[in-house]
Amino acid sequence: MDAVPVRARAYVTGVALAALVVLRPLPETHTPWWAVLLLAGLYAGSELVARSRFVGTCYPVLLAGAFLLPPPAAALVALPGALLSPVAQRPYVLRRIWRAAQLTLAVWAAARVHWEYDGRDAVVAPHFPYALVPAGAAVLAFCLVLTLLDGGILLLADRVPARRAWRGLFTRSLGPIAVHGLAGLMMAVLWRSPYGPVAALLVLLPMCVAWWAFAQYHREQAAHQATIRALVQAVDIKDGYTRGHSERVGQASMMIARELGMDDERVETLRFAGILHDVGKLGVPTRLLRKDGPLTPEERRVIELHPEYGHEMVRGIRFLGEARAAVLHHHERLDGSGYPYGLAGDRIPESARVVAVADAFDAMTSTRSYSRARPVPVAVAELQRCAGAQFDPRMVGALVRALARHGWRPAVTSDGAPPESAAVPGGRAARARDSVGKGAR
């Protein structure tokens, strides 16, 4: 939403107007304004703390409001926190309006469903598991509204294709929101009990512990990303011919892994593997990486040590998992003619077979100072030709399917305009440096 299209602004405006409509008070309904103010203040404070520590939104307070208050009053609980919470990107005002309108509609829908199922009576005199029925219906409504609105903004603001805009949004959010819904129900029951609102606030203590744990996890992930970014930047500075190559190999590796149905954690590991596959170039003398003219057999053998150098560099980084094996073996070939150990077939780790295909594909489709990019269909045909001998056919097939589904945008990784390779001094050496062991050339 950095550069928001007109249609997305119109969409946000429409959602905001809908939010204003649902805030109209219901006739003949008593609204406990002290409870609205207390919950709104609690939500605003928790939202400010949570957002500043990257731990998400305090949905239990919102859902407790949906379980305790009439729909318009419950919707008001979300407004102050949504409008005041920190926003990381521009346009700040539009993003705050969007967040406030989205949460207002979601809380209103949850409260309305809870009201229709006589949930207020269940909260006052809880009879489990009956009390879970209206609460569960309210949580489903809350999650469904968020999903529908989020998919719309992905479609209109981020230009995600319609077939993918809503894919997986509901299923991914339902579990966490259901947990928050249980906490909100506990708050509402205690609120209506003889113990009163003070006891209800105690429900937030375990949630605060969970947020703290999540914040610690987030900091750890940020440290991981910073470690990888520093290594990749060091490689890019040393070997300008492959600038940007690592990130694209990581992207292609992730596409293959997803197409193979791997879980999210393993997909992320293979993305790391693709990004770091050439980190061993830090151990190769710079004069060889930048040499004009052909490489001697001895110099070629030195460059072929870069997978082992890379493995030594990352072997102590535990969070990389199987990515370390990919760094070591991504130049092995299925027929056993690769390096550094000449592994063949299934003896080559699966992660390395994924990265090998991603590496070769990006090398062929990227314009370098010594060669022009090949069209994607030509590169795919070359990978298919080498499948079974150099590349794992499963990985090649997965990449082909992923490309058909998502497409690919090759990028220029050399500095300046790419001339014909025959006119570039040192073109042979550069080609050897970057494609040693890739085979698909």
Automatic annotation (TrEMBL):
Keyword Hydrolase in annotation: yes
EC number: 3.1.4.-
Superkingdom of the organism of origin: Bacteria
Pfam families assigned: HD_5
Domain HD as annotated: residue spans: 242-364
Region (Disordered): 410-441
Segments crossing the lipid bilayer: 6-26, 33-50, 62-85, 135-157, 169-191, 197-215
Regions of compositional bias (Basic and acidic residues) in chain numbering: 431-441
Molecular function terms from GO: hydrolase activity
Enzyme class, spelled out: hydrolase
Keywords: Hydrolase, Membrane, Transmembrane, Transmembrane helix
InterPro entries: Cyclic_di-GMP/3'3'-cGAMP_PDE, HD/PDEase_dom, HD_domain, HD_GYP_dom, HDIG_dom
PROSITE patterns membership: HD, HD_GYP
Domain HD-GYP: 220-415
PANTHER family: CYCLIC DI-GMP PHOSPHODIESTERASE TM_0186-RELATED (PTHR45228), LIPOPROTEIN (PTHR45228:SF4)
Name of the protein: HD-GYP domain-containing protein
Organism: Streptomyces plicatus
